[in-house]
Design goal:
single chain; mainly beta; Immunoglobulin-like; seven-stranded mixed beta sheet; five-stranded mixed beta sheet; WD40; 6-blade_b-propeller_TolB-like; TolB protein
């Protein structure tokens, strides 16, 4: 009997939330919604941009009308767009807008808010994102993993999780210009290794040598796929005593090198392993002729850690011979700015370098003042990306393959959890309002998610990996030893 009553109650509730909008009171206000998708620019293939209304209500009604053609109408207790209808509406309105009109029933009275738009960009976006999810404290590994998200749906799958092997940590994943068939991944712990997967062939490497500080981390592929730049670091984790400054990773030493997968050789330059300089975060230019990196003068740590500021530098690289230039050029002098640069990421079209700017050091993910900046490589101009920055941390970022979309991590919601945002940059360099990575029920999803997103990378297709087979390879401890080229 109780079950029957429950079903009747649910049925009445659903029927009560299937009421047509009649004589609504129109107000000249935009609705309070989560996430804030009002006025954003979206790619044509993006998953449905479902959102939640922030406030009390009995029923929701939304009309979405394409500026060119098409419409979607929902009258329900939640706003969840049917996938096929959503995709068709976006496709029919590429290069124009779709307009949302939200009405809310409160106390049997309908209120209609001012309409708002989303612009449907003509720039396509890549297949998906690969990222790490980890507890926000970083003091212990807890549960973590590398995950892949299909951007056209809400589907997410685990590629590697640390539950596969006890005590394992996975990080520093990288793909060559979004090519999922060229991947590097660092594994720490008792079964540590650098995973290298190129066109279906996988190796587990020991990248520590007698001539280098550590195993290779912070990877970045040469556009040819023939080389990978890494840094090697002697690091220490430190914890602040003040509330707004939580965790630092201190570089006691750091150098930059290049790895040549076909010969298993490490390529070194004396200019990139100076004892008196910290060198880190290497990235190749889109033409492969330069290696950019961050460099700072060595100072006593921890006494003068807050005086360590990283400049953006470069050195020539001969992609045929695998050799380095004979001088270091400084593109942005950190001392002159009294700021510090981390995570440089060149756009693949050669126009920009995006980077994170903070007050000091290079572990900017816990720096509340950290913002995204853009260096224009064509005219040398420099600007903060005010369109996407917030009052809290903006940190790691990456470009899509066509250089018209970028993903970045931000703590803007609560100062604790890092979430992923996407934004568009057009051919004139104008940046759109960012939007939070869509979820089927965003409020429920993000409210319950107890992990931070970390190191997002675009991919052009699903990553081909067999977790059980990889698990056996990791625990086997079979490793290929890399060597320094003489």
């Amino acid at each position: 009997m109780k079950k029957i009553i429950t079903f009747i109650w649910i049925g009445l509730y659903l029927m009560a939330c299937n009421n047509p909008v009649t004589s609504p009171e129109k107000i000249n206000e935009l609705p309070a919604i989560y996430p804030d998708y009002i006025g954003v620019t979206v790619p044509v293939g993006i998953a449905p941009m479902n959102f939640n209304y922030l406030g009390d209500y009995e029923c929701l009604d939304v009309n979405v009308v394409g500026s060119k053609s098409g419409k979607i109408h929902l009258n329900d207790d939640k706003i969840s767009f049917p996938d096929s209808e959503w995709k068709k509406l976006l496709q029919d309105n590429v290069g124009d807008s779709i307009v949302f009109t939200l009405s809310v029933q409160k106390k049997n009275k309908w209120i209609q808010y001012r309409s708002f738009s989303m612009y449907v960009s003509s720039y396509p976006i890549d297949y998906g994102l690969v990222y790490r999810r980890i507890a926000p404290g970083y003091e212990v590994y807890s549960k973590m993993g590398i995950y892949e998200r299909d951007l056209s749906t809400f589907n997410e799958r685990a590629l590697v999780e640390n539950t596969m092997v006890p005590g394992m940590c996975v990080n520093c994943h990288s793909f060559n210009k979004t090519n999922s068939n060229q991947m590097s991944l660092h594994i720490r712990g008792a079964h540590g290794a650098t995973l290298m997967q190129i066109e279906g062939e996988r190796e587990l490497l020991n990248t520590k040598t007698d001539s280098t500080l550590s195993a290779c981390v912070y990877p970045y592929w040469h556009p040819s796929g023939k080389y990978i730049a890494y840094s090697v670091n002697n690091t220490r984790q430190s914890f602040h005593a003040v509330k707004d400054e939580r965790v630092e990773v201190l570089d006691l030493e750091s150098d930059v090198l290049v790895y040549h997968p076909s010969t298993h050789q490490v390529l070194l330059s004396p200019l990139l392993k100076k004892k008196e300089v910290f060198e880190t975060f290497p990235v190749f230019s889109p033409d492969g002729n330069k290696l950019y990196f961050c460099a700072a003068k060595q100072m006593p740590i921890p006494e003068k850690y807050k005086e360590i500021r990283y400049s953006l530098c470069s050195i020539d690289f001969d992609k045929e011979k695998g050799t380095f230039g004979n001088r270091i050029d400084t593109l942005i002098d950190a001392e002159k700015m009294k700021k510090s640069i981390s995570f440089p990421r060149p756009s693949y079209d050669g126009k920009y370098i995006m980077f994170t700017l903070s007050d000091y050091g290079n572990f900017s993910i816990w720096h509340k003042e950290a913002d995204l900046w853009l260096l224009n490589l064509q005219d040398g101009s420099l600007r903060t990306i005010h369109e996407v920055n917030s009052d809290n941390t903006e940190s790691f970022h990456n470009w899509s393959s066509n250089s018209h979309w970028f993903v970045f991590s931000s703590r803007r919601e609560d100062g604790l959890y890092t979430r992923l945002y996407l934004a568009c940059i057009n051919k004139e360099g104008k940046v759109s309002k960012p939007f939070l990575l869509p979820q089927k029920n965003p409020m429920n999803y993000y409210d319950k998610l107890l992990y931070s997103y970390n190191v997002p990378e675009f991919t052009n297709s699903p990553v081909k990996i067999e977790p059980r087979k990889l698990e056996r390879e990791i625990v086997s401890n079979k490793r290929v030893q890399v060597e320094v080229r003489k």
